[in-house]
């Protein structure tokens, strides 16, 4: 008897899906492609606060509370949680009740009634039904494990949305401040060119020059105005995008610090490549999908074995209501049902092959997600390092061209160089200022991309700050 109990306990506890072990089929890199100043603490805090712009901080909080894509992700998690409850309910006995009351008359011409037997009768019954599936082969438990993994995957997907949302808000805000600064530069340049055009007209009217400098100056004014219009479009588009990310209708967002006033952290967060497997929510989501696909194999394998169910019924039947609850009116029944598929035309075999193929698909998707993560981190590290160098080089170029423009203007005023020389200096300085502003924004954008690529504790912290439905 004891051996029988042990066997039954083993059968009840077994599942038929392969044991999941995290494996990576390619060599894990030991480090990133470049060396850099690293600070691990920055990866586990709200990194955007280090930029020192309270307006940006507020925009990110608004986005976390109202972004529609994030609300979709939150609702998806709720749906998977409910689905887990549905699947898990099959582990418990299923109890239902039924009752009926009726009155019927039989035909006295077609039915031969016994003496004293009435033609009209009442019928009452109350029945309690119960059933319980013996999950001997772990079919239900495998389905529960799969549903649980899918729930965890949906949570990590929600965190991926949080990560993407915060990065997008920060990048869009930096881009907006870039266009603001470039618009200011373009307007100042146009004002200077308006003055140059006015002076060119005066010099022409005094007979000091030909019409050529006037046309050249006017062309430069029109060129500056074209640049202003182009940048103004970009400002409006980034404003609309920022409002969309915050879950608002298009409006003119408040501005915070100037692009040059936003703080650039001297160090960047860093983890070893192996730590990335537990840092990026998209990798964790892909792994949970793999675990779910692995558990579905157990569901398909269990379908090949007999299905045992315990059933029971207890209630009462009677012809009058007052005697329905007496002992003679009671009814009961219990038993065990067995269902074994014998021939299904290959359905069970193909269902198993289908789940195994899905497991392989999930495995390769998991591997691809890891490789893509390594690529994104290395891309971001290299881009950020070079962007900082580019910003420094552009600043030197702007300073050099500023001095070149000043000297050209002085020499032009004294008649030592022609107007074309001054125009060349002015054009180069204008383009350099725009390029320097773009390089400044690019440095912040690549830093934001690096935080996005690395993931980290800040994603979990931001996700936990969400106001989730009960």
Description:
The structure is a single chain. This protein is of the alpha+beta class and 470 residues long. The protein folds into two domains: 13-92 and 137-305 and 349-464, Outer membrane efflux proteins (OEP), CATH 1.20.1600; 93-134 and 306-339, Outer membrane efflux proteins (OEP), CATH 2.20.200. The chain has nine helices and four strands; from the N terminus they run αααββαααββααα. The protein has helices spanning 2-13, 54-66, 68-88, 139-205, 211-245, 281-302, 347-413, 419-454, 457-464; strands spanning 94-105, 120-134, 307-318, 330-339. The chain has a four-stranded antiparallel sheet, with no helix packed on it. Helix 4 (139-205) packs antiparallel against helix 5 and helix 7 packs antiparallel against helix 8 (419-454). The longest helix has 67 residues, at 139-205. The radius of gyration is 37 Å and the shape is elongated.
Structure, briefly:
The chain is of the alpha+beta class and 470 residues long.
């Amino acid at each position: 008897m004891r051996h029988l109990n042990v066997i039954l306990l083993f059968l009840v506890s077994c599942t038929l899906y392969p044991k999941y072990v995290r494996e990576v089929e390619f060599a894990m890199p030991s480090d990133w492609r470049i060396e850099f100043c690293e600070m691990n603490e920055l990866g586990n805090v709200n990194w955007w606060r280090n930029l020192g712009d309270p307006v940006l901080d507020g925009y990110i909080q608004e986005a976390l509370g109202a972004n529609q894509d994030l609300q979709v992700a939150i609702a998806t998690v709720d749906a998977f949680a409910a689905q887990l409850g549905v699947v898990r309910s099959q582990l418990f006995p299923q109890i239902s009740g039924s009752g009926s009351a009726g009155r019927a008359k039989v035909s006295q011409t077609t039915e031969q009634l016994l003496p004293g037997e009435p033609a009209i009768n009442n019928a009452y019954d109350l029945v309690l039904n119960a059933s319980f599936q013996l999950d001997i082969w772990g079919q239900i438990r495998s389905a529960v494990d799969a549903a649980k993994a899918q729930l965890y995957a949906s949570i990590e997907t929600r965190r991926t949305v949080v990560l993407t949302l915060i990065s997008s808000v920060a990048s869009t805000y930096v881009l907006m401040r870039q266009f603001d600064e470039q618009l200011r530069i373009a307007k100042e340049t146009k004002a200077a060119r308006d003055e140059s055009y006015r002076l060119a007209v005066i010099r022409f009217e005094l007979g000091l020059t030909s019409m050529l400098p006037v046309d050249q100056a006017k062309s430069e004014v029109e060129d500056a105005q074209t640049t202003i219009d182009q940048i103004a479009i970009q400002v409006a588009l980034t404003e609309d995008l920022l409002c969309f990310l915050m879950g608002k209708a298009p409006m003119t967002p408040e501005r915070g610090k100037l692009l040059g006033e936003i703080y650039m952290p001297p160090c960047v967060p860093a983890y070893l490549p192996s730590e990335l497997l537990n840092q990026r929510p998209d990798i964790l989501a892909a792994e949970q999908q793999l675990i779910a696909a692995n558990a579905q194999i157990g569901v398909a394998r269990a379908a090949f074995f007999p299905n045992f169910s315990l059933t029971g019924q207890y209630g009462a039947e009677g012809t009058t209501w007052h005697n329905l609850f007496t002992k003679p009116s009671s009814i009961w029944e219990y038993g065990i049902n067995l269902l074994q598929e014998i021939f299904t035309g290959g359905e069970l075999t193909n269902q198993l092959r289908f789940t195994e193929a899905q497991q392989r698909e999930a495995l390769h998707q998991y591997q691809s997600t890891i490789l893509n993560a390594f690529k994104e981190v290395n891309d971001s590290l290299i881009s950020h390092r070079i962007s900082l160098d580019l910003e420094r080089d552009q600043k030197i170029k702007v300073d050099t061209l500023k001095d070149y423009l000043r000297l050209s203007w002085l020499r032009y005023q004294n008649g030592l160089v022609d107007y074309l020389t001054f125009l060349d200096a002015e054009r180069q300085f204008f383009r350099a200022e725009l390029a320097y502003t773009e390089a400044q924004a690019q440095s912040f954008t690549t830093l934001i991309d690096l935080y996005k690529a690395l993931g980290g504790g800040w994603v979990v912290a931001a996700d936990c700050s969400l106001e989730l439905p009960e």
